[in-house]
């Protein structure tokens, strides 16, 4: 039945978003970009893509951050177009997408204020998709309680924060805990919202969100090694969704080193390959940092893969989520390549994650 | 061939030429060829990235210049007072060829940089100045508004207290009132923060403050009436003045912090009345000073812009040309050792000498003695299709090109469209009056051609202007068919004596014995059986016209088959098709004509129904009811014709695949390429693929790959293609013939609509007696004219246009058009477009 009535409200937007997706850079274009000698070459090369002349009016010399900002701006413009043309429940769905950016922005502001950075500078660094109007007032707050009472209570994020009101001081560890608690609440809420939308949206989104949850679980575990975070606290931060939940989560909560993390993830065949060679390499003094970054890379690859799969299914909202994520990855790639060009680090230029 | 007079019948013969251009004259050569607009360059390094090509440095420089010119354009556009921009034809041209070309460009680049830096500097100072002005204006507003507020508070408090010491005290009371007698009579000083904030943020600001301070504040705000305009973007922002009273340093610090992070500007305002008055004075004075400075800066900025405006179009032109030139040069192969550029290009064979002389001219201009060398190449590649048009034929050719670009050297349907298109249109639009209206509209556009082509006409008028010659002919032909239908604004013309007269009292007209010499007898007009007669007449006429048009289109196959040396196609395709069409529908047309020629009033049998005859021909072959017989021996003739048509179907279906199969067997050892008819449709499509691939920059390798790959499929392709073609043609013949009935339907609708319009608006008030009648006539006439132009000429005209278009594209072109060519796109500077 969804297929029958889907196009009445969402057919146009799905067409738009699939059109946008057709404009993502191809492997060929990445190869061309990677050959660029200077950022001007980079601009010339990009002007042949869907980005068009988005950098044409920038005076020379270009900087990487300009490229990133402008590329993000194109994504934001596209997203806003989608959002302003959408009807419920898609509007709600699109809003859910922005919540994750709002969480990031809030954490950024709190951390920045904690380290006494300039507020305006912080505001500029916030992701434009996650801006809400009372956001600037965040930097006044000094405790979580105050934060919640003064600003967050009127945002849609308020329910997520209710859980972590007990944390009193704002220090780096606490902020990290808040971030993860909030994100957990967000993921679970989004997951349930998607379930309430019914198939096929729920099918696609549950797959993506479950992976996202698992990724966070693994990351939290790895990052909490050798910190003062207790194991009970750690267990509380794990989202209660995902393919690792509940068995894997329990194992992860007790894990002490990478080996145990690997064992916990063994149960899911897709995740097995993530840890494939890290075990062997560790024996020869391979440092954990590189292993973690490699793992991160594989997670990104998996995310891209899942998001690409979302486009195989029609009549569902997953494409909107996936498009934003894919485009974000593309901007990360562009920034990476541009950075490599700017810093003349040609040997690492191939480390981007191709999308199509 | 090349000395033949240029014609539209086939596309121009093209040659592939190779140009060896010494690097010194390369720029000037391309410039000269671009001015000529007759050469389509091929990309010789498709595998090279855009930024790895030889002239990328120059392009980047031009891009930078273009950016500057764009910057100037936006600056000029943003200026509220219009800055005059001198049109291109009034400017002295900037010469960018010849020995001094490089210098000119250098100078231009410098000039642009200078102007840019000057303008940027002026903008900056203007910006800072207006920023300061804005701040001061805001300060003034804050001072004024707070003063108002304080005064009000004073007035209120005087009711409560008899005396007060300073201006802050009354506020305390008002505050106390709200707080319910908290710390009454205390001697602490209530502090406040004042400033401005964007209006849209006020509610959020208030809410956040309320929550942060837990309600321990008193806030007041008022709107500032006039908006603040950002000088660089021109965006308007509206702001509010706010004043917040709170107690304690901590709270005040919090307020300040929130205010700052919400983008508010805070001003230090003194609670003292006198000090405030002083401050206001100071602000006023400084504001006045600033405004004079701002005015002067604005003036000098404007004069700079005016200077830029004088040359802007020349710069735009030069930059556009230069960019195109270097982009073209990038297509060339660069031979470093010999310092020459090698280009390959398609040119019309006829224009080779013109291009030679252009090359010589370029050499002379640039002041060197080494001329570029032009060398004609032999090639097996399909050249682009180029129809040389003029302003008259352009529109008609565009109609056909929109359907598809004709194959190279195939018969061009655009030529015949010049007469058939307006004619088919006119059959549907036939009315002398309406035809004259659009004829004169087109004539007006043609007379003012020179003026109108220079100005920007907008999209809709521009469309009509582009098709002015089509409209002219459409109008002319419509007047002709209008005479045939004897129809002028739904009325009849009595030019000659009618062949009928209506005796008094009798409902039946009598023949006067003579025949109306041209067109429809006006006697039919208003007759009770007018519609029956006209319908029968127009319906039959549509079929006759349609079959003639289709037969003609089918015959256009012959020159194509002969030209491309596909003799076998004549026997396998053309002959069965024409027999099929003529034995069924050609016969119908003959019957129609014969039936018209017989005087049925003197005949012993009633006139037979042709439609039933046609159906009977299929259902009961060979049998005709003698009562419904059109002529003796009809049954036999129809049987022969039907069996002829029946034979044609398998003939069309099998003969071509059979020939292909025989050829294949005969030449197995020689390979399949020697099929003899090298331009078969099957083969043709692969060629197109190859060409497309080539245009996309995959280079020559693709052509050979495709050449090897398609042989196995060739026979299967021929079979499948022929099956489709047979089905399409046989069914098409029937449906297309029926499709021409739209001529009748549209023509009927047009005539009826114009009659209804006449009856509804003018008919009743044609003989005015009183003043009211005259007014009614005026209103009716006005309405009639507007509806005639709007509905009948424009809307009906568009609909008839579309139907004529369809008849050409579908019914006409499907009979002979091969298409699949690629258009000749020469390098030219004329194209419209932004930088």
Automatic annotation (TrEMBL), chain A:
The keyword Cytoplasm does not apply. One of its GO terms (cellular component) is proton-transporting V-type ATPase, V0 domain. Keywords: Hydrogen ion transport, Ion transport, Transport. Gene3D superfamilies: ATP synthase (C/AC39) subunit, domain 3 (1.10.132.50), V-type ATP synthase subunit C domain (1.20.1690.10). Signal peptide: none annotated. It holds the Pfam family vATP-synt_AC39. The keyword Transport applies. GO terms for molecular function: proton-transporting ATPase activity, rotational mechanism. V-ATPase is a heteromultimeric enzyme made up of two complexes: the ATP-hydrolytic V1 complex and the proton translocation V0 complex. V-ATPase is a heteromultimeric enzyme composed of a peripheral catalytic V1 complex (components A to H) attached to an integral membrane V0 proton pore complex (components: a, c, c', c'', d, e, f and VOA1). Subunit of the integral membrane V0 complex of vacuolar ATPase. Vacuolar ATPase is responsible for acidifying a variety of intracellular compartments in eukaryotic cells, thus providing most of the energy required for transport processes in the vacuolar system. Subunit of the V0 complex of vacuolar(H+)-ATPase (V-ATPase), a multisubunit enzyme composed of a peripheral complex (V1) that hydrolyzes ATP and a membrane integral complex (V0) that translocates protons. V-ATPase is responsible for acidifying and maintaining the pH of intracellular compartments. This subunit is a non-integral membrane component of the membrane pore domain and is required for proper assembly of the V0 sector. Might be involved in the regulated assembly of V1 subunits onto the membrane sector or alternatively may prevent the passage of protons through V0 pores. Belongs to the V-ATPase V0D/AC39 subunit family. This is V-type proton ATPase subunit. It comes from Candolleomyces aberdarensis.
Automatic annotation (TrEMBL), chain B:
Keywords: Coiled coil, Hydrogen ion transport, Ion transport, Membrane, Transmembrane, Transmembrane helix, Transport. Its main location: membrane. It comes from the Eukaryota. Residues 160-172 have a biased composition (Polar residues). Residues 160-180, 674-696 are annotated as: Disordered. It holds the Pfam family V_ATPase_I. The chain crosses the membrane at residues 423-446, 466-485, 541-562, 574-596, 635-654. GO terms for cellular component: fungal-type vacuole membrane; vacuolar proton-transporting V-type ATPase, V0 domain. One of its GO terms (molecular function) is proton-transporting ATPase activity, rotational mechanism. Residues 105-139 form a coiled coil. InterPro entries: V-ATPase_116kDa_su, V-type_ATPase_116kDa_su_euka. GO terms for biological process: vacuolar acidification. It is found in: Membrane. It is a multi-pass membrane protein. Essential component of the vacuolar proton pump (V-ATPase), a multimeric enzyme that catalyzes the translocation of protons across the membranes. Required for assembly and activity of the V-ATPase. Belongs to the V-ATPase 116 kDa subunit family. This is V-type proton ATPase subunit a.
